[in-house]
Amino acid sequence: FLADYGMVWVGASESPDNIPEETDEDLEGEEKKSVSVQSTWNQEESVTDTAPDYNKIVHNVHELNILAGDGVGMVERGPDGITRVVQPDPIPLTLYSNGIYMFQGPFRPLSEPQTRQFVLDLEEGYFPSELQKRYPNGMVIKLTDLREKQYVDKRQQASFAGKGNRLSEGAKELAAIRGYSEDVDSEDVATDTSDPIQKPSLERFLNKLPPNVIRDGKIIDIRESVSAMVGSTSTPTKVEVAETAVVKQIQAGEGTSGPVATLRVKLDGGTKTLIVKLQYTDTIGDLREFIKKHKSGLYEIRTTFPNKIFSRLSESLEEDGLVPSATLHIRDL
Q: Which helix H or strand E contains 268, and what residues bound it?
């Protein structure tokens, strides 16, 4: 048979007839040995723990990009039937000293076996095996070499390293803000006020409270009351309520003859607030009558947003859009 094809047997001197035949026991032993070897393979043990050779990876990625057609256009026919020349979309890959960042993340540390296998494929000059199904013809890799930097996950960093302060708890806080409940304990509103870090927070808390509330026909200055309860040394804005006809009706428990507008008038650069309660039909002139008891000299009444000056004394609050409530500022002329 060999002579027919110009070949000569150069094997052992023994003739094929003298070669001992393999018994079933020999075959069974070989199968067991093969199964034993295959069962001990482990991916984690097969991937080396040595540091990657970044120079080799950068060089190999350049070579692989050439094989994948980097810079070479391919002719494709689109769904609309038009033929176009397209470039392969590159895969973004960033190398760090402690891992890789591919696509939109997440970061993959070198401690993961799959990441080490990915880097090892590039180091040995192969396209990454985990991307073969997705890119069977290879892929262009847009490599960013940051081997000198260590990736730090910003999500694991503490966003605030200062001290937190508790202002209030649940329903008691709402009671203090909305209804001025006298059973609100000072401990539930603020903690140690001697802490300089907490004082600005307490001031912000007081500024968020309504300046006053009406309870059982009485106008109560809630900011001063809460400030006294917690032993605050801050000076909240001084609030005064103008003695209008509407306020007298409320204090007497009588109903008002019409809807009521609440105006907060800022005086003395905002350090003093005058609360003026008037009916919708009352005019700017009526408002000035109460302001002049607290402000002398020439001034103008205005709002900051929108920026508007109210100078027509005969116009009503409703006509000027100051209902149901508004904040006004007094500016010296």
A: none
* Spatial distance between the Cα atoms of 175 and 31, rounded to a whole number of angstroms: 81
How far is residue 20 CA from its own chain's centroid?
76
pTM over the 0.70 mark:
no
Q: Hey, which residues does 75 pair with through a beta bridge?
A: 85
Backbone φ and ψ for 220, nearest 5 degrees, come out as -115, 130
- The two tokens of residue 294 are 């607290």
- Calpha distance 222→207 (Å, rounded): 11
Cβ count near 126 (within 10 Å): 12
Q: Which residues, at least 6 apart from 173, have a Cβ–Cβ distance to it below 8 Å?
A: 167, 188, 189
The secondary structure of residue 193, as a DSSP letter, is T
- Identify the CA nearest to 139 among candidates 185, 186, 89: 89
Tell me the torsion sign for CA atoms 25, 27, 30, 36. negative
Task: Give the least confident one: 128-137, 180-189, 202-211.
Answer: 180-189
DSSP-assigned letters across all residues of 37-87: HHHT--HHHHS--SPP-HHHHHHHHHHHHHHTTTT--EEEE-TTS-EEEEP
More confident residue, 176 or 254: 254
Task: Please state, in angstroms and rounded to a whole number, the distance separating the CA atoms of residues 159 and 276.
Answer: 44
Three-state SS for 146-190 is ECCCCCCCHHHCCCCCCCCCCCCCHHHHHHHHHHCCCCCCHHHHC
- Whole-number pLDDT of residue 175: 45
How high is the pLDDT of residue 275? 92
Largest CA distance in the chain: 132
